[in-house]
Amino acid sequence: MAVDTMAGGTTDVPTVPTIVLVGHGMVGQRFLEALADRGVTERARVVVLCEEPRAAYDRVHLTSYFSGTTPDGLALAEDGFMEKHGIELRLGDPALTVDRAARTVTARSGLTFGYDTLVLATGSFPFVPPVPGKDTEGCFVYRTIEDLLAIEEYAATGGTGTVVGGGLLGLEAAGALKGLGLDTHVVEFAPRLMPVQIDEGGGEALRRTIEEMGVTVHTGVGTQAIVAGEDGRVAAMSLSDGSTLTTGLVVFSAGVRPRDQLARECGLPVGERGGIVVDEQCRTEDEAVYAIGECALASDGRVYGLVAPGYEMAETAAKAIAGDAGSFKGADLSTKLKLLGVDVASFGDAHGATPGCLDVLYSDSRSGVYKKLVVSREGVLLGGILVGDADSYGMLRPMTGSVPPVPPERLVLPAGAGGPVELGPSSLPDTAVICSCHNVTKGAILGAVTEHSCTTVPQLKKCTKAGTGCGSCLKVLGQLLPPAEDKGLCGCFAHTRQELYEIVRALRVTSFAALLDSHGREAARGGEGCEVCKPAVASVIASLAPSIGAPVHVLDGGQAALQDTNDHFLANLQRNGSYSIVPRIPGGEITPEKLIVIGEVARDFGLYTKITGGQRIDLFGARVDQLPLIWTRLVDAGFESGHAYGKALRTVKSCVGSTWCRYGVQDSVKMAIGLELRYRGLRSPHKLKSAVSGCARECAEARGKDFGIIATASGWNLYVGGNGGADPRHADLLAQDLSDAELVRLIDRFLMFYIRTADRLERTSAWLERIEGGLEHVRDVVVHDSLGICDELESLMSAHVAGYRDEWADTINDPERLSRFVSFVNAPDVPDPSVRFVEERDQVKPDLDLLAGPVLLAGPTLAIRTLEGTVTA
Amino acid sequence: MTIELLLDDAWFPVCDDALLTPGRGVAALLPDGSQAALFQDRHGALYAIGNRDPFTGAYVLSRGLLGSAAGRAYVASPLLKQRFDLATGTCLDDESVSTASYAVRSQ
After folding, report:
1. Are A259 and A291 contacting, i.e. CB atoms less than 8 angstroms apart?
2. Percent of chain A with pLDDT over 90
3. For residue A124, what are the CA distances in angstroms to A27, A181, A257, B58?
4. H/E element holding A770?
5. Would you list which residues of chain A are within 8 Å, Cβ to Cβ, of chain B?
6. pLDDT, tens digit, for every residue of A441-459?
7. What's the mean per-residue pLDDT of chain B?
8. How far apart are CA A120 and CA A262, in angstroms?
9. Structural domain total, chain A
10. What is the DSSP letter of A267?
11. Same structural domain, A631 and A670
């Protein structure tokens, strides 16, 4: 039994076997997943010793940091993976020594761990050629996020950066330097770029394209020395052709070497040129010790520096530990990468080493495309090289070893020049490996579609792991899915609301008919639209009205015909055909005089009154023809529309705040009024509610709102995505301790981003749950401006604020609009006899009995006093 | 131009066509005290059905949104959104339910 000895001397005796994994890189993480998949984590203690300060991340896509991916976004393990499987991950605590006799590993922290099984996944280290000056300040390697951050910091002032090495990793590093805005050079000793993967023609195409991007490529020259300046930092490098290259920063990327030192020191055999010797089960000479990934020398005598073979080794070792059969006998070096934006792929026998093989070549220097296929005399596809356009890689690689269904020349020619328009994966056999990183066959993917009902690429990735490695098969995965379900807004539009928003914004479409006829589904063009798309498009046009030149009033132009009855009549339809009216009471603050006016109006028109949950007063029971009369009274007293009828900002509730409350720390009422007046009338995908609390006691219930604000001693905390209703959700904290101005600016951005990207009738809560990246993504966009759209979002909101007009006042001052507010087009002065009321608790309620019969009858009803006099049935 | 509805055997004048908004409806009071909902689509075609929503009893169909599906115009009730074919008055979501329909012309 193994002994788990802690440095402090505490000894405990575990009852389960212990597996210690040394190294938590991509392969290490894959190994842990394979263990978990096989249930090994349930019956064994698993300890992971990781040298880096962060858990496994996607090293292959390190350069995507410069296109906005955060270090966290590169993380490989799902949230909670370690906790779920009881894995003890020790970050920043590398293994220092292994005692194979005692079966213990000692880490840098001083802790010693007993093991039953030890797995070495220590990866490799960048090789730095022994040139003079290689340790000068300003010399870097490029392998970890920490390397990248260090380069970023050093390069902050700009200048020139040079990469030593024009291979795959060197070009990745060059991409990083370019991403940092440096004048970038690449120095490669071989006569062409990427000498291992591609041939001379491919290297030439790659070089031309890369140089057009402003990267200077030097091939056929070696680095002889790094020259330091007077400040001791890198100033230049001297090359083997006698020239000198001025550069302020050097990145060595001249290959990698296996990190096998731990194994060497504990006496495990290693290869002549490095690499821990393992058998087909990835086991070392010591049967309790395995080695996987770049640190291992596989049974075929090779060290694999690619992620796909590493993953295969991880699977193999996990199988062996679980007692399952499996072996790793070697892998092909097929790879597809995007280097500096250029697709480069190489697969199978790329260099034509097979005796008697033939080449099929297509090369177009103008567009930087180079494609070479290697085929046997019998027509079997043996391998190939693709530069500039590697879209067909996902199809060609699985075909390797078979005779393609069309002549090889058609596989390399561009579409339209005799090439197949699209050779779909239907031509592949079920045994073809689609994802070579995870060894997933076409049959397995189709099985996931039929048996596990996968309908999207993300579901396929989760279910089969296909596409989670290098990602080169994602296109084929998409093609293997059944046709996507229709995401269109309705039967009239195949676009989503978000897409329609972008169309309306970009093309400045101001009429529904124009949008339907230009962008509707073929069959719906020239039609009327429907009850789904008309209000949705009306809302989009209203949200953008000031900036696309559409009328601001919702009843102007063609807009009137699009509105739901509530927006059309600027009031809320109730069950008997009468309407309710809600004047705006910003922040819930109201003077006694205004309260009296509301009371008088309700009394004079015989309206039922109720206090709403949003701190205002709802007046029920108005006939269509009474609406303008009621509004006139309210507008004269200083009220305006509260937009209770619209998918728009409703209320901003508040507590009394620091003015009155002994606990309050900020003036919540003032802030609530300011926000309500700023966003009043803003049309959005769904209603918007808000609240401001003056202290952490949260009396305004701000976290139940779409955007809620809670005062702190030093400012405001902004929460977003809350709602009450059938599926309540607490709002999430978006930003803390904001000044008044910061708060308003952030809400401006948040609301406009929501309006821009939400689906029809999607509250902020559902939107936050749905959009890719969730709250983090929204924070990146609106706080850190990761999409660079914040200026635009703010200017859209400014246009809204500047263009706001009270819809009630505009209506009562316009005879044409007023003409719609009649019960009957042919009898405008006759009140609708179907809208009657009976009494309950000293107020009115709808007379529903009157509506029950098929024919309108004059039944017994309550006499209602109205301005037009007493009406009796 | 005057819009007329056919009631029994006689054409009943309702209103001037300028009072209609394409894509929306208006309510008309008929001589027997019943109500019709009158619509004009974006191409000018006229339709009239009963104004009473049979599902709720409220006289509101004229305030619904006009739509079309497979070339046929309908109105969606503003209360619970059931759709009624404007040519026949039949509910598209429940064929056992219908409202009146009227022939309509512009003279």
Report:
1. no
2. 56
3. 12, 28, 5, 77
4. helix A764-770
5. 491, 513, 523-524, 526-531, 534-535, 558, 560-562, 564-566, 568-569, 573, 575-577, 819-820, 823-827, 830, 832-834, 848, 851-856
6. 888 888 888 888 787 787 8
7. 92
8. 9
9. 7
10. T
11. no
Same domain, A112 and A133: no
Chain B residue numbers touching A855 (CB-CB < 8 A): 34
When CB atoms are compared, the residue of B38, B73, B79 closest to A528 is B73
Give the best residue of B63, B84, B86 to mutate against chain A (max A CB count within 10 A).
Answer: B63
Whether residues A713 and A790 fall in one domain: yes
**Among A48-57, A330-339, A590-599, whose mean pLDDT is lowest?**
A330-339
- pLDDT band for A517, please (50, 70, 90 cuts): very high
Hey, how many other C-beta atoms are within 10 angstroms of the C-beta on A739?
A: 11
For residue A440, the enclosing domain spans: 426-484
Which CATH number goes with the domain that contains A776? 3.30.413.10
Does A247 lie in the same domain as A134?
yes
Considering only the beta carbons, identify the residue of B15, B29, B76 that sits closest to A830: B29
The domain boundary residue, chosen from A400, A423, A446: A423
Question: Structure tokens of A59?
Answer: 């090293």
Q: What is the mean pLDDT of residues A332-347?
A: 81
Shared domain for A654 and A619, answered yes or no, is: no
**Residue A10, pLDDT score:** 42
Question: Which CATH fold would you assign to the domain B2-106?
Answer: Rieske Iron-sulfur Protein (2.102.10)
Helices (H), A606-667: 627-636
CA neighbor of A713 nearest in space, from A730, A733, A738, A690: A738
Lowest mean pLDDT across A263-267, A318-322, A428-432: A428-432
- Cβ pair A825:B21 closer than 8 A: no
pLDDT of residue A418: 54
**Which residue in chain B has the smallest CA separation from A818?**
B19
A114 vs A134: CA distance, rounded Å: 39
Does the distance separating the beta carbons of B27 and A824 come in below 8 Å? yes
| Residue A491 maps to a domain | no
Q: Which of A515-524, A599-608, A715-724, A853-862 has the lowest mean pLDDT?
A: A853-862
The answer to whether residue A846 is domain-embedded is no
The per-residue pLDDT for range A162-178, each reduced to its tens digit, is 999 998 888 888 988 88
Domain end position, chosen among A291, A322, A353: A322
Burial class from Cβ neighbours inside 10 Å (0-12, 13-18, 19+) for residue A671 reads buried
Please compute the mean of the pLDDT values over residues A810-815 and round it to a whole number.
92
A155 and A229 part of one domain: yes
Which residue is it, tokens 């072996």? A327
Give the span between the Cα atoms of B58 and A871, in whole angstroms.
20
pLDDT score of A13: 52
Interchain contact, B58 vs A832, CB within 8 Å:
no
Please check whether residues A717 and A771 belong to one and the same domain. Answer: yes
Which amino acid is it at A101? A
* Tens digits of residue pLDDT in A668-706: 999 999 999 999 999 999 999 999 999 999 999 999 999
* B residues 44..103 contacting A (CB < 8 A): 52, 56-60, 63-71, 73, 76, 78-79, 81, 83
Mean pLDDT of B90-107: 92
- Taking the C-alpha atoms of residue A449 and residue A699, their distance in angstroms, rounded to an integer, is 50
User: Which one is predicted more confidently, A577 or A854?
Assistant: A577
pLDDT digits (tens, 9 = 90+) for A88-98: 999 999 999 99
Q: Does A137 share its domain with A237? A: yes
